[in-house]
Amino acid sequence: MPYTISVHTLGCKVSQYESIAIAEGFEALGFRVLPFEESCDVYVINTCTVTAESDRKCRQMIRRAAKRNALVMVCGCYSQVSADEVAKIDGISYVKNVAAFYLFPKLDVKKFNITSDKQFAADLLRATNILVVPGSGFDWPDPDHLRLVMLPQ
To answer: Given the DSSP bridges, would you call strands 132-134 and 71-76 parallel, antiparallel or unpaired?
Structure first.
């Protein structure tokens, strides 16, 4: 019988995409992906840290998974920003906090004559090969922010 895994996402569309990639990676290793409510061998919680409420929801989901006597892995923005806090939660097996770090630069839309954050992101990618996620893509309250991923050396 194959090992089972559940990947639960709290956060934006980019985090949802990352979670799909994580699940597909485990499937390629022979794991069976199940819903979070099911009993699994491994739980991956992909976290968000946009607001205090999202931080609270992350801690709540991490604790729910940790109570299930399984391997619990935590990744994503909240685990990077608050790695020490997450690591203190009983039952956590792994906190990924040394990978990519997300930055949320604010654009001066008037200075750069930006009318669409999505168009700006597409133009930036074409011109420089720098990939950013427009603020509207992850439900940022105003469209003049981007999500930029910084990878460690």
So the answer is: unpaired
Amino acid in position 92: I
Count of C-beta atoms within a 10 Å radius of residue 88: 10
C-alpha dist (Å) from residue 63 to 60, 66, 92, 110: 5, 5, 9, 44
The model's pLDDT over 80-99, given as tens digits with 9 standing for 90+, comes to 888 888 888 888 876 765 55
Q: What is the 3-state secondary structure (H, E, C) of 54-121?
A: HHHHHHHHHHHHHCCCCEEEEEEHHHHHCHHHHHCCCCCCEECCCCCEEECCECCCCCCCCCCHHHHH
As a 3-state breakdown, the chain gives helix, strand, coil percent values, each rounded to 5, of 35, 25, 40
pTM over 0.85: no
